[in-house]
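Reply to dn_fold:

You asked what the input looked like. This is it:
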Amino acid sequence: MKTTSDLIPEFEKLFRQKLQLNNCKLRKKRQENSYEIITPAKDIFLMHWSEFPEINLTYQAIGVRTQQTSVYEKAIRSHISSCLSSIQENPTSESPLLVN
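and this is what came back:
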């Protein structure tokens, strides 16, 4: 059985690969379990968790939120869900994997 500390690097690797499909960049922040996602349109989303795999995704309001921003947000949330499902084959707990 995999531990959470094993799952996080696996999730991060898969998630980076998925984001590359949308030309998005994933940047790890100094705060533990906190990441910044930058889209080609220069939108910034913050992804973080206190209890993996309950991941929160927040739009960082820097400019005007456009229709394209919503498209990227849906794609990012889909990528998060997909990556969590991929690593769920060996869950560390019985709690469901959530994306808030």
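Helices lie at 4-21, 67-87.
Hope that clears it up.
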